[in-house]
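User: Predict the full complex structure for these chains.
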Amino acid sequence: MKVSDLLQARRKDWTELETLCIQFESRATACREPERLTRFASLYRSLCADLALAEAYQLPPEVTRYLHRLVGRAHNQLYRSQEFTISTWARTLLFDVPQQLFHDGYLRLAFCIFWGAFFLSAVLATSQPGYPEAVLGAEQMQQMEEMYERPLGELDPEARGLMLGFYVYNNAGIGLRCFAFGLVFGIGGVLVTFYNSVSLGAVFGYMSTLKQWDNFAEFVTAHAPFELTAIVLSAAAGMRMGFALINTGGLRRIDSLQRAAVQATPIACVGVILFVLAAMIEAYVSPAPVSYGYKAGVAVLSAGLLMFYFVGLGMPREAAR
Amino acid sequence: MGGMAHGNHQLDTSIEIVTPENVSFRYHVAGPFRRLPAFLIDLALQAVLLMIAAMGVQFMSVAFGLSGFFLGMGGFLIFWFVLSWFYGGLFETYWNGQTPGKRLMRIRVIGTDGQPINGLQAVLRNLLRAIDCQPMYMFSLNRQLIMAGFLYQFGLFSTLMNNRFQRLGDLAAGTMVIVEERQWFQGIIQIDEPDVIRLVQQIPPSFQASPSLARALAAYVQRRLAFPAMRRIEVARHLAEPLARRFGLPEGINPDHLLCAAYQRAFITDTPGDVVEPVSPFAKTASLAIDAASAGRMPVEVGESPFAALPTSEGSRP
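Assistant: Here is the predicted structure of the two-chain assembly.
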């Protein structure tokens, strides 16, 4: 039996597998039919055997290449991407992430950088007359002044939907960018965090010297816990990746990065969730014409939830390990 | 699992993967010139989706006035956020490593170990696009609208620095983009030139090509039509002369034809009982070749062929 006979004999199976591949690729439901699936698996195994013996059969290179491609195609249909399951993500976000954050040095670092620079910048903004203008620029300062000129109740309540969208788009975008920039050896994350906290601190410091402070403080109280925690979390997640390139713990740099990135992504996702929660509060609670006590209550409640998340869920559980 | 071709072993863009079935096969990794069109297609699709969403906002503002506009615009911004950060991640999770652009360009994201990617890897590699697309430059068309352009230098540089064309997001997520080429089956090449057919009968049927010789013959026959006749002779001579001596053929045979005849002898059936009715597009030429081969029949020792004891693989039994 020579090669041409062999090809003649095997070709039927190969073509059948090819047809099944096309069906699986185009229709997701096709791969749930049991008969097709078993037929596919057995055809794939025999194709693998053919490829493994291709050398021994002395198949022409063109045929071998065809087999390689067909195996690759079938392999990708047989071994499919794992989709999100709610239970695994819930477990990751509610169990693994807080446990990990409890010991997370990068979270502490991000926290110190953020709040250190924030307070320093705020103090400078109140004490040094030229400082706010140097950091924020005259245009933004004027904008801030105008924005908080009027009492909050006068804001158009219909615009809240728009503001929700804007806060999600803008703030969560900043958080994710902060996460991504962390990859640059950690320095990117440090710089972005530093920049964010300095400008935020300058805004706070500057506003505290003006008569608009009351409106401003009333506005920011309710959503501050979620939003500021979210930005620190995003920065910490980014730094975890960036510093993994430097402190490899004995692994190759690339392996160290991959390990850190797998740990950091759920943290960044928690950051996004917090940003979305903050945006909802910022759009619907913060500008609402209700008493300050109500808004402060929201702030206390959200801070309590965060405490529960970080400490309550994060407390090391020996039994679970 | 996951035997990879490392660094200096790799001559081209192919990557070797060992499957759980314990067979290794090769992929070609996709380079920037295949990924860029896929990216542009995805970008265009995102733009179209955004435009449709913008029309929805317009519809809402017409239907419900200012409050409709505010609500629609809020939804539009959230949609924009999800689209710009999670478009790739969601598609690659639910479409098994492909986005619409990647599907059109026939490329797919898989793990560097050849395994499919999971949702986390898909989301991660797309979030890190924010760093791959740097540096960014800002430009303003009319001093009002500031637009950002991305040069993708980080990602491009990264793909050039490793042998799997991985951008930074791929490196962090442990993924690579591979070409999933469809290829139609090409069987044995049939040669129906009368000179070759005549020559086949002068080669002993017991001729067994060694693996390297078989490879050389197949590679030659596949490419020979790309060369002019003189050049073919020039190329074929180096192999044809020793072969002619081995077969005891007289001098002066066209080396090109001799290699083709040896190819026919090595690859194509020569036992008349085995002949299956050919169904290939080469049907006509194939039957020609078989007829010619069986015309001057000589006894063949089939038992010596390595193909005689061919294991029947399980797939052939339904």
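The two ends of chain B are 29 Å apart (CA to CA).
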